Every structure is written in structure tokens, then in C-alpha cells.
Amino acid sequence: MAKIYYDKDANLDLLKGKTVGIIGFGSQGHAHAQNLRDSGCQVIVAELPGTEVWKAAKKADFEVATAAEVAKKADIIVMLAPDTVQPRIYRESIEKEMARGKTLIFAHGFSIHFSQIVPPVDVDVSMIAPKCPGHILRRLYTEGSGPPALVAIYQDASGKAKDTALAYAKGIGCARAGVLETTFAEETETDLFGEQTVLCGGVSSLIKAGFETLIEAGYQPEIAYFEVCHELKLIVDLIYQGGLSYMRYSVSDTAEYGDYTRGPRVIDDLVREEMEQILAEIQNGSFATEWILENQAGRPSFNAVRRMEAEHPIEVVGKKLRDMMPWLKG
Length: 330
Fold this sequence. Notes:
Elements: E1 4-5, E2 19-23, H1 29-38, E3 42-46, H2 52-59, E4 63-65, H3 67-73, E5 76-79, H4 86-94, E6 103-106, H5 110-113, E7 124-130, H6 134-142, E8 149-155, H7 161-171, E9 179-181, H8 184-199, H9 201-216, H10 221-230, H11 232-250, H12 253-266, H13 269-283, H14 286-296, H15 300-310, H16 313-322
Helix pairs in contact: 1-6, 3-4, 8-9, 8-13, 9-10, 10-16
């Protein structure tokens, strides 16, 4: 079982007198920066001058500068830019400022685990990964609570890397809920696996397969959309609230029986074998290499598939139906 830390295990005073540099004011960055400031920390933000996010950070009354300027001033540098641009930002703007005694914090382990960023040996390297999007992290903090997070230590040059990381977790509000101890390897590999096989890739492919099966059998696309896509939120919300057992308690006995008897026929041993192969590709680095090369080439395959998926019939039908439900835009 994972070890879990809470507010009582973290000392926010460890961040006093230190400057925290947030690299990127996007989805996670804006929440980390505001929560830390509200917790009494000194925060500066790095963004590209003149961009909309630069203007947003200025509007939020932060000191905003280039990544190089922030890296020079900051004692704790937090990499919250997208994975695909982190190596370039680090190489061009941060690496030369990584002096002994500084701390480098990540919210995801990809760049470190797959050696896209290789920090000097005399700095602390850690991870605090909130288990929610940034806007929820911010909202929960303002409501006096917070989401769980993961903590991992990659490099402990000072002997206090975990203490500093837990102080940071407390500063953004995650220690209120609990911070689970992991490693960079475990967080990165399980995160990629979850995205690819269940949360994004698995669910998207399952929805499309169900939709296409009903359409090919002669059913109306609007009815198919409701049955295999629209109602998914209801089921996921029930699972989120109380696990599989609560979902099964909440649906009809007919649905529950179909769950037990037909679900394993869809997600069968062949699917499990493919999941194992996908996990192996994550573990041996072949997926990371593929994605890194795809980005270096200008994302030709990624962009082509994105265009094709946007034109799938389920997207066309879904847009029409969602336009009938204005409350979804609230």
C-alpha cells in the first residue's frame, strides 16, 4: 500500500524566504501559482512575452518574465509547460541556471523518466502531481479543500527533497486530501498506460465501436449516440462516486446482469494481451521514442489522425444533439 502524507506531515515554513518559479501559466500553472501565493509563498511566473497566457499572468498580478529570467531568480523551479516543449525550454533557458542547492519540481515524470531532461547531480528533483485538472485544483483550494496528489523523489542532493516537495504539496492544497508516495517511473508508466488503454484510447475506441456496430445494424445514429456515448457520463459519475459496486447498485438488474455476463466478452483475453503489449512499449521506452520523433518531424501522423477523427460520424451526430442541450454549455 502507498504511504500517504497529510498537512500535519508537511512544513510550509520550508518555502519561506524562497522564490518559486512557475514555468508555464497554463492548465496546471495558473492554479499552482495562485494557490502558492495564497499560501504565503513568493511566486514568479515564466511565459512567452506578449502571449495570451503572459497577459493572463500579468492580469493576475504576478511578476512575469522569460523562463531564463525566472530560472535565474527562483530557488524552486516548477516545470509546468507541456511535456513536448519542456526539453527545449530546459535546454535553452533553465539548464545554465541550475546551480547547487536549487530544486526542480515536475507535475509529471515523462521528461525525467525518459531522459529528455537530465538535471545536474547537485540539485533536488521531485514531483508533485495533483490528480485533477488545474481549474479544479484552484477551485478546491478556494473552497478550503484540495485533491489528492502524488509525490516522488528522483534526486535528493540536499537530503531534504521530500520535505520540500511535501511543503509544496501543502502550499497548493493537495496535502489537505493526501499525498501518495510513488516513483517517477511508476507515475509515468501508469499514467501513460491509463491514458492509452482505458481513459482516452480505450474509452474512445469502445464508444466508436459500439456506435458503428449499431449504425451498421440499421439503427438511427442519434439513438446510437445516446446509448453508447451520452449516457456514459452517468455511469462514470456513479463509479467515481462509489466504485463499481455503487454503479451496479444504481442501475437496473438487467443492466447489472449484462455487465457481469457480456462485459468480459468485449474486454476479453485478447484485449488483456494487447494491454500487456502496450504496457511493455511504455516500459521499454518505445512509445516515448515514437512520440518524441513524431514531434520532431512536425507531427504529421498525429495531425492526420486528428483531422480524420474530427470528421467521424459520431462527432457530427453528437454536435447536433449537444446543440439541443444548452445546459451542457453552462
